[in-house]
Design a protein that fits this description.
5 helices; four-stranded antiparallel beta sheet; alpha+beta
Length: 194
């Protein structure tokens, strides 16, 4: 494996938003490879807490209707309903080829701290991002309007201690992503040598 190619892959990974997708369907085989690579993320005590639900084709409409209707129901009860948010939730999934619900299934024995389970899921998502980048596919991890809501859990088959951590939107990008920018690593690191 060429270390320079690995570094290049890491540095060219970008979040590409659904509005920047062509509408062309991504091959299911690429999505399956993304999921398989997610499964190789590290997890303390091998709890493997990542769970995914893939929406595509008519399933995208199922997701869009569920999340927009749940948002409307809860927001109307609180008096915070926003038509713009409702419309976004009912159309955003339809711009993607696939949307993967990102979930954390808590270890029943609680053998590791919950934050470590969430971190393991984030590592799995990074593996999916990098796989997509290697294939020239766009991704975006968004929290959406229903992430973290207890009321959403039954739809995704989640238990009380599990979490819905967001959605990975997948599509063919309309254009080559812009070059990324980062502040210098030296501003973020302190070396202790003695």
């Amino acid at each position: 494996m060429n270390p320079k190619e690995v570094s290049e892959l890491l540095r060219t990974r970008r979040s590409i938003f659904p509005g920047n997708y062509t509408g062309e369907k991504v091959d299911d085989a690429i999505v399956e490879e993304m999921l398989e690579n997610a499964n190789w993320a590290p997890s303390n005590k091998r709890t493997e807490p990542w769970r995914f639900k893939v929406f595509t084709a008519a399933g995208l409409t199922t997701l869009a209707e569920f999340q927009s209707n749940l948002y409307k129901e809860l927001a109307e009860k609180k008096g915070t309903f926003n038509e713009k948010t409702y419309n976004m939730l009912s159309t955003k999934p339809l711009k993607a080829s696939h949307v993967i619900a990102i979930m954390m299934k808590r270890d029943e024995k609680e053998s590791v701290p919950e934050v470590e389970e969430v971190e393991a899921v984030a590592m799995a998502v990074q593996n999916m991002y990098l796989t997509a980048t290697a294939h020239g596919i766009g991704c975006y991890w968004g929290s959406g309007g229903i992430t973290y809501l207890e009321e959403a859990k039954p739809f995704f088959g989640l238990g009380k201690t599990d979490q819905l951590l967001g959605f990975l939107f997948i599509g063919h990008p309309k254009a080559t992503p812009e070059t990324g920018k980062r502040n210098p690593i030296q501003d973020k690191v302190e070396w202790v040598r003695s």
